[in-house]
């Protein structure tokens, strides 16, 4: 891996997750995006944006928090496990990276357990996403926050889903990936509020200057869905 990444070292781009500097990033995606994946920590555009947001707009690094991390990304889990202020739990139905095996529609924790929840690019895989959202709301403490990210087609008013679309090839054609079961539209916020969350759609990336967006290789139309249990 070191030999593979050494030729990418440089100063043009920087990964805020691992602190590495590179002349270019790896291409990544079903339809490969250039300069998308960090050669060192493998973060993607959404991970780098979320890391910056967590640093600048949450208490994740300063408060004593019980954190539930769904489908843990290695770059985040490795860091969160070393943070003394976090009582950290990662969970997933299948991933061997997670500390516990868990169905997000049946979370095995009491009401009001967690101060914070991170769940990124998970709900589009879940058949009953509304039940999953109710469970996330249930286990979040009053006053707690959750960041619930999903791929969203901003050109689409309504979420598209069809339970009869089951083959991997057809799902990829309609939903963008072979294991997705829906394509969220701009009504994604409505699903979050239906579960009880107070939702702020934060256009954080637009507060960054263009040089930072390019240097960190961020998506210009990525929004942060910051949800609270008020």
Describe the structure.
It is a single chain. The protein is built from seven helices and eleven strands. The protein has 230 residues and is of the alpha/beta class. The strands form three sheets. Strands 7-6-5-8-9-11-10 form a seven-stranded mixed beta sheet. Strands 1-2 form a two-stranded antiparallel ribbon. It starts with a helix and ends with a strand. The model has no long low-confidence stretch (mean pLDDT 95).
The strand line-up of the biggest sheet is 7-6-5-8-9-11-10
Task: Provide the structure class.
Answer: alpha/beta
In terms of DSSP E residues, the strand content is 25-35%
Chain-averaged pLDDT: 95
Helix content: 25-40%
Q: Measured on Cα atoms, how large is the radius of gyration?
A: 18 Å
Mass-distribution shape: globular
Q: Compute the number of strand runs.
A: 11
* Count of individual helical segments: 7
The biggest beta sheet, please? 7 strands, mixed
Distance between the termini: 45 Å
SSE sequence, one letter per element? HEEEEHEHEEEHEHHEHE
Q: Which ranges are low-confidence, i.e. pLDDT below 50, for 5 or more consecutive residues? A: none
Short structural description:
This protein has seven helices and eleven strands. The strands form three sheets. Strands 7-6-5-8-9-11-10 form a seven-stranded mixed β-sheet.
């Amino acid at each position: 891996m070191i030999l593979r990444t050494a030729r990418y070292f440089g100063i043009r781009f920087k990964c805020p997750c691992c602190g590495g500097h590179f002349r270019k990033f790896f291409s990544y995606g079903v339809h490969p995006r250039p300069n998308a994946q960090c050669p060192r920590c493998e973060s993607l555009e959404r991970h780098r944006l979320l890391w910056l947001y967590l640093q600048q707009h949450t208490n994740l690094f300063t408060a004593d928090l019980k954190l539930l991390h769904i489908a843990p990304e290695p770059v985040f889990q490795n860091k969160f496990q070393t943070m003394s202020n976090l009582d950290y739990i990662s969970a997933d139905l299948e991933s061997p990276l997670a500390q516990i095996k868990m169905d997000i529609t049946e979370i095995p924790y009491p009401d009001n357990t967690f101060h914070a929840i991170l769940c990124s690019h998970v709900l589009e895989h879940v058949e009953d996403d509304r039940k999953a959202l109710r469970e996330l709301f249930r286990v979040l403490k009053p006053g707690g926050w959750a960041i619930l990210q999903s791929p969203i087609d901003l050109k689409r008013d309504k979420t598209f889903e069809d339970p009869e679309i089951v083959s991997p090839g057809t799902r990829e054609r309609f939903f963008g990936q072979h294991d997705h079961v829906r394509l969220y539209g701009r009504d994604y916020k409505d699903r979050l509020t239906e579960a009880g969350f107070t939702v702020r759609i934060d256009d954080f990336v637009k507060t960054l200057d263009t040089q930072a967006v390019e240097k960190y290789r961020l998506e210009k139309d990525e929004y942060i869905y910051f949800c609270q249990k008020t």
